[in-house]
Q: What sequence folds into this?
């Protein structure tokens, strides 16, 4: 495959940034998108040019590090992570535009790398859970209804990639936040601090500069793990309950 790539280059947070056009050839359809970028960087290194900075780690669709906007879509045209997106999803001769996540809360560090520390700070704002110390309890000591356990597990699948923020026209982080709140809210261990947790996390969300949710649904459509939009409804319900309790 021969492709034209328009890639965002930005030397740092204070640089204005620009799209730079590159040509790549003989790309295997079986390559992942990141492997294709590796090939391009090898060519740039051979020419003595600065390689393109982008995030990656596991390259197995687990860690969420590899988020990119690819031709206007978070993670590209398929519902998957960028590292699991293969070049067979594109056509020979196609022009592909590659940009970093676009959100005030995700400042560009360099090229395609953004600082997603805002997501970590939201989790940190949620604080701890109360749990007795000592020896490990028996597996059946705290029964959890299957429906609650399944829903908690579903919400826990969120990998914090930020695709929901990048896809949202408002750059809202509510799907991510809803997943984290729902995860603990469905479990007995999450109940003692439930009210305080949701208020603190929502306040941190707003402090970080994320936009508000207007229920467009682009977040859930872009989520590579398929987190449903109804976790935002759960978040709103928990927040209203906490505010009624005066937390």
A:
């Amino acid at each position: 495959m021969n492709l034209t790539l328009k890639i965002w280059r930005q030397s740092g947070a204070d640089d204005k940034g620009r799209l730079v056009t590159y040509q790549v050839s003989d790309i295997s359809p079986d390559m992942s998108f990141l492997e294709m970028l590796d090939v391009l960087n090898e060519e740039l290194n051979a020419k003595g040019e600065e390689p393109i900075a982008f995030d990656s780690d596991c390259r197995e669709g687990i860690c969420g590090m590899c988020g990119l906007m690819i031709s206007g879509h978070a993670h590209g045209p398929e519902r998957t992570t960028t590292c699991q997106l293969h070049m067979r999803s594109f056509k020979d001769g196609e022009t592909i535009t590659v940009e970093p996540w676009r959100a005030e809360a995700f400042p560009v560090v360099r090229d395609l790398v953004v600082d997603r520390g805002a997501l970590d700070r939201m989790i940190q704002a949620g604080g701890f859970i109360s749990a007795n110390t000592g020896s490990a309890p028996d597996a059946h000591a705290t029964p959890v209804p299957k429906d609650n356990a399944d829903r908690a597990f579903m919400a826990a699948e969120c990998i914090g990639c930020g695709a929901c923020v990048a896809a949202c026209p408002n750059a809202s982080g509510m799907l991510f936040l809803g997943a984290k709140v729902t995860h603990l809210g469905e479990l007995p261990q999450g109940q003692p601090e439930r009210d305080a947790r949701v208020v603190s996390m929502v306040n941190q969300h707003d402090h970080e500069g994320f936009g508000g949710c207007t229920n467009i649904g682009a977040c859930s459509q872009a989520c590579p793990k398929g987190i449903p939009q109804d976790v935002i409804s759960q978040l709103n319900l928990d927040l209203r309950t906490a505010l009624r309790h005066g937390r």
